[in-house]
Write a structure and sequence with these properties.
The chain is of the alpha+beta class. The chain is 24% helix and 42% strand. Residues 1-7, 26-42 and 370-382 have low confidence and may be disordered.
Amino acid sequence: MMRFVRQKPFAALVAFCVVAAGAWFVYRSLFAASPGAGGPRGFGPAPVVVAEAKTGEWVDELEAVGTARSRESVAITAKVTETVRRLHFDDGEQVKAGAILAELTRAEESAQLSEALAGLEDATKEYQRISKLDSADLVAKTEVQTQTARYKAADARVRAIEARLSDRLIRAPFAGVVGLRNVSPGQLVAPGTVVATLDDISRIKLDFQVPEVYIAVARPGLDVIARSEAYRDREFHGVITGMDTRVDPATRAFAVRAEIPNDDGALRPGMLLAVKIIRERRRALIVPEGAIVQTQDRHMVFVATPENKAEQRVVKIGARKPGFVEITEGLVEGEQAVVEGAMKSRPGGDVAIVGRVDALTGAALPMPDAVTPSAPDAAKAK
């Protein structure tokens, strides 16, 4: 018992030392002077990064995701049941409009055409002879009518056989790129058999969906910018050419179509593209998004004055885009907006600019070199 009482003052002393050390630490944290601060911590210069508010081009954009389609696309098929005699294209070949892609066997039709041509020649001669006699009124009208009918029938038969022969020549309906061939010489094909695909990709149709709230914004003639994961460093520029007349009641969106030049064939049908619709281009005062401090329903910006003081401004903001904000009121071009360190600043407090960024790009800017004092100034300082 005496041992416990004897140690009690020592325990109290230890507790007192702990409390005193804690109080000293708090004092040093809150009130002790920092090197070069010129005053207590919390009231010395707050280190900040600033961006000079600049007027630049502001682009209002509407983003969507679309699918690339051919300007014209068709599956080349046979019209009759016949065997393939010859193919006139290679996979991925560029062909002209009307080019023969495949020949089907046509020996029987060729023989029939020769017979029909011979009959047409005989009927033509007889028709010409009867016509001369008719002009001299030396032949009955019924015979003239009979010979005229024979001539027309022979001519119609020739044209019918020529049409059947034409069906055995598979031609390209328009200029484009042929896909992979699906048949081989000697293979029997029937109506509907796909010989190959043909796509005109000189221009790409880009189809995408836009929410109905933008139905008054999207219109033909607006510029679009498309990007593909296949070409991450490249932009494809086009223009809106049309919009669907209906809004999908399930998605509350409507279809929009744009056309993009594709002279080098980089884009292919079916590719997924990220689309930006350029709604408007205008000049605006821009600051990085980090400069905006939200307080209830107000937006504020801390400005570093030429006297290195923090000045708090209430501003009105316009449009936003990732990383940047349009300022419509409360800030003028050239003022230094605090983008980092605003929470350490207080109105009227000192600030120390430790970094600068470009307001239009967000890139870090070099700090101005420190001015070295001249010899007379150095002597005065001593």
